[in-house]
Specification:
The chain has 395 residues and is of the alpha+beta class. The chain has 18 helices and eleven strands.
Length: 395
C-alpha cells in the first residue's frame, strides 16, 4: 500500500448518518459504562466499538516504553497466536510504541501521525506481523499513563477498511473518553455483576472511596473509605447531607456533573472523568463519576435513589521521563525519539537497524536529524545527552 492508495475521507457531517450515529453512540456508551460495572462485558463492548469506529478488531492493553513489554487485558478480532507473538517478540519492533506513549490522553493516534507510512511499510514489524494478518493501520488512544507505562485502547484496520482517515478519528474521539472513564473506574473494583440488593455490601468491601449520590448531590450511600474521607474533611465534606468539595469551583463543577448524570449518559457526556479535587501544593485527589441511570447500572441506582457513583482516589505524582523531556526540548519526531532511545543499547548503525527493524538508511537519516536538532556530533554524544537528562541533578 502507498500513500496514493489511502482511502479518502468521506464527508464528516451527513444529517441522516449523524442521526444514525447518535443512536448507535448512545447504545455503545451505555454498554461501555456497563463494562465498568461488569468486566465480563468488555469483549462484546470492544466488538461494538470497532464496528462503530470502522475496523476489524480492538484491544485494551498496556505498554512499558522502557522495558518494551506489555500485556493485553481484552482483545477481539485478532488471533491468539499473533496476540502472543506480539508481546513475545514484536512489541520491541513496533515503531508506534514510543509515539503512542507520548501522545496526549484521549487523542487518537494512527501510524501516519508517528512516521511516514512508506517508512512503516519497510519495517520488519509490518512485513512479519502486520501484513500477514491483512492489517494496514491501527488507531489508538492513551487512557492513562505513568512516567514509564500507559494503558491504551485501539482499533485495528484491515485492508478492506483502508488506513485511518478523518471519519475514523472523529468516531474514535466520540467514544475514547467513555472508554477511559470505564477503565479508570473498573480498575478500582469489579462488581462481578453484583445484584442491586447487595450493591452496598459490595462497595463497603472496596478500598477506594465511593459515594452514591442523587441529582442534587445528596449522599445516599458512602462506603467505609468514603466515610473516612468525610471525617478528615481534607478534600470532601458532607454539608446538610450533600457531597461538597473544599474548593468552590470544584464544588460547582460537581453540582453540574451530578445534575447532568440525573438526565442520563448522553447528558453527562464526557464530564466527570478524572475531576481534580485539589490543587497544588495539596495532595492530588481525583474523582471519577459513573452514571447509574441506564443499562445494567440502572437497577443499582434505583435501589439506592442514586444517579451516579463517585469514585475518589489519590493521584500519583509522576515526573516526566527523560525521553519525554528531551522530545519536547528538541522537538523530536516519534521516529527520531525511537532511534535515540535505542542508541544506548545498540552499537553501530547495523545494530540499530536490526534492533528497530528498519533499514540502515532509515537509521542514518534519523541520526542525522538527531545530530542537527540536539547539537551533537556522534552516537556517543547522544548517549551522554540521555545520561544528562536522566540525572536528578540536571538543571
Amino acid at each position: 500500500m502507498t500513500w496514493a492508495s489511502r482511502r479518502q475521507p468521506g464527508p464528516v457531517k451527513q444529517e441522516e448518518g449523524m442521526i444514525e450515529d447518535t443512536g448507535a453512540l448512545s447504545k455503545l456508551v451505555a454498554r461501555i459504562y456497563d463494562a465498568a460495572f461488569d468486566q465480563a462485558l468488555w469483549p462484546g463492548v470492544l466488538t461494538d466499538a470497532f464496528e462503530f469506529v470502522g475496523g476489524c478488531g480492538a484491544a485494551l492493553f498496556s505498554k512499558d516504553a522502557v522495558s518494551q513489554q506489555g500485556s493485553v487485558y481484552y482483545a477481539v478480532g485478532i488471533q491468539p497466536y499473533y496476540r502472543q507473538l506480539y508481546f513475545d517478540k514484536y512489541i520491541a519492533l513496533d515503531p508506534s510504541t514510543t509515539g503512542q506513549f507520548f501522545a496526549e490522553i484521549d487523542q487518537p493516534i494512527a501510524t501516519a501521525d508517528l512516521m511516514p507510512y512508506d517508512e512503516f511499510l519497510e519495517t520488519q514489524f509490518y512485513q512479519e506481523w502486520v501484513r500477514p494478518q491483512g492489517f494496514v493501520d491501527f488507531v489508538s488512544a492513551m487512557l492513562d499513563k505513568s512516567s514509564t507505562s500507559g494503558s491504551m485502547f485501539g482499533v485495528f484496520r484491515h485492508e478492506r477498511n483502508g488506513v485511518v482517515d478523518d471519519e475514523t478519528r472523529r468516531r474514535m474521539r466520540l467514544i475514547v473518553p467513555h472508554v477511559r472513564r470505564a477503565v479508570l473506574v473498573g480498575r478500582m473494583f469489579d462488581f462481578n455483576a453484583a445484584e442491586a440488593a447487595t450493591f452496598a455490601d459490595t462497595l463497603d468491601g472496596l478500598s477506594a472511596g465511593i459515594f452514591l449520590v442523587d441529582a442534587a448531590g445528596r449522599i445516599v450511600h458512602a462506603n467505609v473509605a468514603a466515610r473516612a474521607m468525610i471525617a478528615t474533611g481534607e478534600v470532601l465534606h458532607s454539608l446538610d447531607g450533600r457531597l461538597t468539595a473544599s474548593d468552590s469551583l470544584v464544588d460547582q463543577s460537581l453540582r453540574d456533573i451530578f445534575a447532568a448524570a440525573g438526565q442520563g449518559d448522553a447528558a453527562l457526556g464526557t464530564k466527570g472523568i478524572a475531576v481534580p479535587l485539589s490543587a497544588p501544593p495539596a495532595e492530588p485527589w481525583l474523582a471519577h463519576i459513573l452514571p447509574l441511570t441506564s443499562g445494567a447500572r440502572r437497577d443499582a441506582g434505583i435501589a439506592y435513589s442514586a444517579v451516579a457513583a463517585v469514585f475518589v482516589r489519590k493521584a500519583l505524582f509522576e515526573v516526566p521521563s527523560s525521553l519525554e523531556t528531551i522530545s519536547k526540548r528538541y522537538k523530536l519526531t516519534p521516529s527520531e525519539l525511537r532511534v535515540l532511545a535505542a542508541v544506548s543499547d545498540a552499537g553501530g548503525i547495523p545494530s540499530l537497524a536490526t534492533a528497530l527493524g528498519v533499514s540502515a538508511a532509515t537509521v542514518k537519516t534519523h541520526l542525522h536529524h538527531l545530530f542537527n536538532k540536539t547539537g551533537t556530533n556522534s552516537q556517543a554524544d547522544l548517549v551522554k545527552l540521555l545520561a544528562a537528562h536522566a540525572s536528578p541533578l540536571r538543571t
